[in-house]
């Protein structure tokens, strides 16, 4: 059974001034993040403004990455939306391209459905995709979705679909919940909230991190992952990535990272976000780079 491990970037989605996905920036950023050391990309996560994108945009943009020479075996796109037929469509498309996995939100909005309803949703999704190549990452982000993927549900799905339900992304930020999932579903690769919990997670059976700030700090996060796995002293490196993360997180992850990229690249298209978000500003990017100091020297280089 394939269990993903390592550092995974839910990549940002750049937009043209008219709102279309900026194909050239999309491809160049994806390649840069991989070149910096990320093990995998996860297009169309929360950081990628996925739920502000249409199904056709998501499928086309994924194809652009493959056409640009990025191996689908290094991609785990988000495919979860509220309507089961659309989640099936996105998931089938990703699996058909050869993607390593798909990251799937629970069906949100109907918040009273509970574990039984979500178990039905995921079970029917797996049945309708009907492809043994499907590898699923359950995506728990209740502060956004309003619906949890509980430890009990994770254990239930892992037992029912051991070759398919292989990972869990915990974006709630609660280590106690992460630990509960690790205990409840030992055959599932669990990814804690961010690189701020990377070393603690690896010491307690977690698999790595799927984190927004891998977009900007992939090399340092990968180095920390490798050094932790090797049993080296990582206290200084761990403190540095936590400091980097705090600066970006406190400023609002998506606009903050886009602002930094706009300043460093000189391409103002990075300032564009999709509604309902407001656009980023150059002023914010400059202030963030000042705050980050030498920790950001690598951004926009190479």
From TrEMBL:
UniProt-listed SUPFAM superfamilies: Aldolase (SSF51569)
Record keywords, A-Z: Lyase
Catalytic residues as annotated in Swiss-Prot or TrEMBL: 139 (proton donor/acceptor), 169 (schiff-base intermediate with substrate)
UniProt-listed Gene3D superfamilies: Aldolase class I (3.20.20.70)
CDD domains, per database record: DHDPS-like
InterPro entries assigned to the protein according to its UniProt record, in alphabetical order: Aldolase_TIM (IPR013785), DapA-like (IPR002220)
Keyword Nucleotide-binding found: no
Annotated GO MF terms: N-acetylneuraminate lyase activity
Superkingdom per UniProt: Bacteria
One Gene Ontology cellular component: cytosol
Any GO BP annotation: N-acetylneuraminate catabolic process
Family: Belongs to the DapA family.
Protein name: Dihydrodipicolinate synthase family protein
Organism: Mesorhizobium neociceri
């Amino acid at each position: 059974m394939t269990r993903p491990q390592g550092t995974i970037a839910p990549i940002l989605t750049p937009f043209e001034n008219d709102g279309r996905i900026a194909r050239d920036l999309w491809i160049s950023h994806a390649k840069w993040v991989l070149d910096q050391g990320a093990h995998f990309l996860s297009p169309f996560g929360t950081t990628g403004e996925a739920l502000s994108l249409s199904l056709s945009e998501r499928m086309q943009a994924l194809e652009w990455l493959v056409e640009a020479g990025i191996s689908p075996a290094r991609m785990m796109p988000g495919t979860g939306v509220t309507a089961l037929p659309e989640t099936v469509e996105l998931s089938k498309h990703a699996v058909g391209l050869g993607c390593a996995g798909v990251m799937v939100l629970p069906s949100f909005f109907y918040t009273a459905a509970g574990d039984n309803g979500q178990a039905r949703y995921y079970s029917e999704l797996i049945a309708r995709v009907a492809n043994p190549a499907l590898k699923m990452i359950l995506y728990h982000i209740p502060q956004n979705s309003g619906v949890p993927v509980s430890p009990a549900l994770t254990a239930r799905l892992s037992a029912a679909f051991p070759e398919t339900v292989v990972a869990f992304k915990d974006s709630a930020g609660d280590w106690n919940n992460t630990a509960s999932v690790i205990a409840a579903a030992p055959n599932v690769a669990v990814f804690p909230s961010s690189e701020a919990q990377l070393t603690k997670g690896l010491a307690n059976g977690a698999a790595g991190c799927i984190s927004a700030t891998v977009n900007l700090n992939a090399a340092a996060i990968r180095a920390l992952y490798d050094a932790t796995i090797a049993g080296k002293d990582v206290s200084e490196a761990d403190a540095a990535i936590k400091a980097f993360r705090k600066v970006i997180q406190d400023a609002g992850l998506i606009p903050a990272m886009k602002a930094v990229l706009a300043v460093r690249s000189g391409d103002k298209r990075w300032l564009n976000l999709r509604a309902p978000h407001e656009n980023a500003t150059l002023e914010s990017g400059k202030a963030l780079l000042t705050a980050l100091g030498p920790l950001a020297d690598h951004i926009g280089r190479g």
